[in-house]
Amino acid sequence: MNQVPTVTLNNGTLMPRLGYGVWQVPDSEAERAVGTALEAGYRSVDTAAVYGNERGTGRALAASGVPRGELFVTTKLWNGPKQRWGRDEVLRAFDESLGKLGLDQVDLYLIHWPRPMREDFLAIWKTFEEIAASGRAKAVGVSNFRPADLERLAAESALVPAVNQIELHPLFPQEELRALHAARGIVTEAWSPLGQGKELLTLPAVAAVAAKHGRSAAQVVLRWHLQLGHVVIPKSVTPERIRENLDVFGFELDAGDLAALDALGASAAGRRIGPDPAVFDV
Q1: Which is nearest to 113 in space by CA: 21, 184, 50?
Q2: Strand 163-167 versus strand 137-143 pairing type
Q3: In this structure, are residues 125 and 157 in contact, taking their beta carbons and an 8 Å threshold?
Q4: What is the mean pLDDT of the chain?
Q5: 54, pLDDT greater than 70
Q6: CB atoms within 10 A of CB 92
Q7: Residue 193, Cα to own-chain centre: how many angstroms?
Q8: Which residues, 6+ apart, have CB-to-CB distance to 74 below 8 Å?
Q9: Pick from 13, 51, 154, 158: most CB atoms within 10 A?
Q10: How far is the CA of 60 from the CAs of 80, 96, 218, in angstroms?
């Protein structure tokens, strides 16, 4: 039985609060990894055009036997710097992703990066409005957008992104952005919710909370996210860890636990692991 709770997006679509991410999973391994996740009970899968594993992900979805209505599939537009992203290019990229996934509809389609120096995400969003209206994506949103980017969207479009998928973990808590999301009805989704396993999971404060609950460091960090209202998409290709990352609904962190993890962000002074959206244009 699927135990993952859902959040209602701003257009009424239900999204699982915990999903399986496939960043850096080769296409040749994606079918096995996603299949393992679906067997374990995951029903949300997050991929992207640039990951190069939409075909393997699609094969796993088709082979799983899980009814399409029980699945939540996210992919993303790779609005890369080497071409113009007009309406035709965005629609073509969307069709290519659907074809690789073997689907006629995705549940969520995201602009992968704002690339503010290119001045084109507003035009891309206009085409996303069209995709949403067509029903071929149940919901549309953005990824890595900063407050300034979201303000520009709000000034030009009545369609509020359903989700902003951002780097977020206890060492980089993004309080300002999370507050803006809450005010605008945008769901906060965390990529690299475990800090890519670097440093965060070995910190004494995390280890102490994990020992207190008889859980792994990864499980208590995922629990921190969930209790703060985030959607999370941890990634692993190890079957045991895939299952472990899902097993986070049988315990709760108390106020002291949450405070101990919250304090890591202040001490780290906002330690970003991934690219800075203000300048990323690769």
Answers
A1: 50
A2: parallel
A3: yes
A4: 95
A5: yes
A6: 11
A7: 9
A8: 19, 44, 45, 46, 47, 106, 107, 108, 109, 110
A9: 51
A10: 27, 18, 25
Task: Give the ranges where the chain is alpha helix by DSSP (H).
Answer: 27-40, 54-64, 87-101, 121-134, 147-156, 175-184, 204-213, 217-227, 239-246, 255-268
Supply the Cα-derived Rg of the chain in whole angstroms: 18
The answer to whether 25 touches 233, Cβ cutoff 8 Å, is: no
What confidence category does residue 269 fall into, taking pLDDT thresholds of 50, 70 and 90? low
Q: Is 107 helix (H, G, I), strand (E, B) or coil?
A: strand
State the Cα–Cα distance between residues 209 and 214, nearest whole angstrom: 9
Token pair belonging to 211: 């020992």
Rounded Cα distance, 196 and 209, in Å: 19
Average confidence (pLDDT) over 70-76 = 98
Contacts 24+ apart (CB under 8 A), 213-217: 213/251, 213/253, 213/257, 215/248, 215/251, 216/244
What residues are annotated to the active site?
Answer: 51
What is each CA distance from 259 to 209, 255, 256, in whole angstroms? 11, 6, 5
Whether 103 and 270 have beta carbons less than 8 Å apart is answered as no
Cα separation values, 158 from 148, 161, 252, Å: 16, 10, 38
